[in-house]
Amino acid sequence: MTISKADEARSQELEMPTKEKPAVLPKGIDRKIIKSNQVEFFANMCRNGSASVVMENVVCNYARKLSDDYDSGYWEFVDLGKHSLTNTFFMYPDKEVYFCANADNYSEGYLSGELFGLIVSLFAINVMAWKTQKELRDHFVNLYHETKDRVSLSLSLIVKKSDSPEEILEARTAQRMIYKFLD
To answer: 153 CB contacts (<8 Å, ≥6 apart)?
Structure first.
């Protein structure tokens, strides 16, 4: 029996991401860049004006906490579409590569700006779930789990169904880095 290159990629030991080849969010994940301004994005994501101001601060603080490479900048806003209960979103900064370290669980690695932004967004959404009033707490809890589940499911489907070894390795590496930083 011959093992395909795709099957080999599914079982291959993963390399640590490097500055030259950071962990990325594979192209196979459906997403749409939102062409709205920052105020509109946060208002839609947070469903509350004052929460959106807090959310913006939390995002920037977590970006600085996770990476010394982050020094502010332009962020892209991404709609991942509706999962089951809510629309799922994340945002990412304009720099291409970040070295990240989570002092709370000793994880580290090089991430693309997009994957870095996804992880930062999930951290920030989680914080918002703990810091907001009851009526918004449920929204942020759902947003966190649905965004994480949507990305996890998409990555798992890429690993299972793709015929591209490169895409499979990208998806497996992204899964590992998300898990390393968040769990």
So the answer is: none
Q: Report pLDDT digits (tens) over 81-96.
A: 766 666 788 889 989 9
**pTM for this one?**
0.91
Of 70, 96, 83, 81, nearest to 33 (Cα)?
Answer: 81
Q: Report the topology of domain 24-182.
A: Alpha-Beta Plaits (3.30.70)
3-state DSSP call for residue 33? strand
- Give the C-alpha distances (Å, rounded to integers) separating 81 from 61, 94, 105, 150: 26, 22, 30, 9
- Residue 117 scores a pLDDT above 90: yes
Closest of 122, 127, 109 to residue 174, by C-alpha:
109
CA distance 100 to 134: 32
For the residues 159-179, what does the mean pLDDT come to? 94
